[in-house]
Design goal:
About 30% of the residues lie in helices and about 35% in strands. By secondary structure, it is an alpha+beta fold.
Amino acid sequence: MCLGIPAEIVALKPDDLATVSVNGVRREVSVGLLADERPQVGDWVLVHVGFALSVIDQREAEITLEQIQQLGQTWDDEWSAFAGASR
């Protein structure tokens, strides 16, 4: 199963890239799919396979993280992939 993970934008970079943080783990993702929404530092986005798919509000991000953590092994697998990914 593949999940979209809520992440907070902590830095914007050139070429439609951003640094996001999930539980203290930082990754570089593309925000190019959000051309109409133009996210800012501090915004929360839904990330899947290195791409921010949509801007979400912080409360929605918190609820989503709580819910996917309840998935047990599925969450553990997804988190391991995210935390160990390099870009």
